[in-house]
Design the sequence.
């Protein structure tokens, strides 16, 4: 099984103890570890994969808390850096009754934004792996250079590269800045997972299939479009389709997409594919849809608990939800 290296922000989510209030009316919050790349690292580890988090946290109480969470869940922290130049990031999250969220970030700058390009160690890329990143790290010049360096190193070593834009517009001066930061990284990615609104925004297309094709034209091999309760859609050079999910009672959607990413990358890591092998794998739509069905199950189960990392499921829980052993095995 390949190792996963998930790069970017680890932070503290302060999540309301009850749903349905706007952020300014929330009176009680619960601390929860978060940050999309951190969530993905834990998701893969919870499922049983070899997972490394790559990032920088503050040498402070919240940073030490996050490091403890990684170790508790089996994420390897040998690529985790500390700094006293900035504090660990915080995010306050408001939850509607349906579990959807709104965010307010405190990071001016935060520790994750200070990870430098020359701190992305080429030695980390010597053994085969999967490199995963998001767009929050692209919102600040220092961490943006490190993100590109990681993607370049992974690409040079024939790793699979996974990119989840996971756009957070409050972090950008204007929406167009986010698009301009994301587009140059897409040619490095084998897998891009997006929500439909993100896909249409990034491509400026009006229709999902045409938008997905524009990413494939840039060199992306697999575009996965998450559809919430409706599962996901997928696009490759040869095929497209929709994979439904299993209904659950959602409490908090925080981290659902990261749980999905974790399930997808865990199943791909099991298959131990290089870039050419991955492209051959995509020609087998049955095997691909089984992997995506497992990922859907991971995302669905993540919505049934509060916070992101505390709600990420085990492999056994996903297989129990799906009722068929998860839909695929390595091979």
Sequence:
């Amino acid at each position: 099984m390949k190792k996963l290296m998930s790069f970017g922000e680890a932070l503290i989510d302060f999540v309301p103890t009850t749903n349905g209030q706007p952020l300014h009316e929330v009176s009680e919050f619960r601390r929860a570890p978060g940050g999309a790349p951190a969530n993905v690292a834990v998701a893969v580890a919870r499922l049983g994969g070899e997972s490394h988090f790559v990032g920088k946290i503050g040498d402070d109480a919240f940073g030490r808390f996050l490091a403890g969470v990684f170790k508790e869940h089996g994420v390897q922290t040998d690529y985790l850096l500390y700094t006293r130049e900035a504090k660990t990031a915080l995010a306050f999250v408001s939850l509607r009754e349906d579990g959807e969220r709104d965010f307010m970030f405190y990071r001016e700058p935060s520790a994750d934004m200070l990870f430098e390009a020359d701190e992305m160690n080429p030695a980390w890329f010597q053994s085969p792996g999967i490199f995963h990143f998001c767009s929050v790290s692209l919102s600040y010049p220092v961490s943006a250079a490190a993100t590109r360096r990681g993607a370049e190193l992974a690409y040079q070593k024939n790793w699979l590269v996974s990119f989840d834009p996971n756009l957070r517009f409050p972090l950008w001066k204007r929406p167009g800045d986010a698009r301009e930061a994301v587009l140059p990284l897409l040619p490095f990615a084998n897998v891009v997972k997006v929500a439909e609104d993100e896909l249409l925004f990034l491509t400026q297309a009006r229709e999902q299939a045409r938008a997905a094709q524009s990413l494939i034209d840039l060199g992306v091999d697999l575009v996965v479009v998450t559809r919430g309760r409706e599962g996901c859609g997928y696009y490759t050079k040869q095929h497209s389709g929709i994979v439904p999910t299993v209904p659950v009672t959602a409490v908090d959607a925080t981290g659902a997409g990261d749980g999905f990413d974790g399930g997808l990358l865990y199943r791909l890591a099991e298959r131990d594919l290089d870039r050419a092998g991955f492209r051959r794998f995509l020609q087998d739509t049955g095997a691909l849809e089984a992997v995506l069905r497992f990922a859907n199950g991971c995302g669905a189960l993540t919505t049934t608990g509060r916070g992101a990392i505390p709600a990420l499921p085990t492999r056994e829980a996903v297989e129990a939800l799906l009722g068929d052993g998860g839909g695929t095995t390595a091979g």
Remarks:
- Residues 3-322 form a domain with the UDP-N-acetylmuramoyl-L-alanine:D-glutamate ligase fold (CATH 3.40.1190.20).
- The chain has a mean pLDDT of 92.
- The first helix runs from residue 36 to 47.
- Residues 6 and 37 are 5 Å apart (CA to CA).
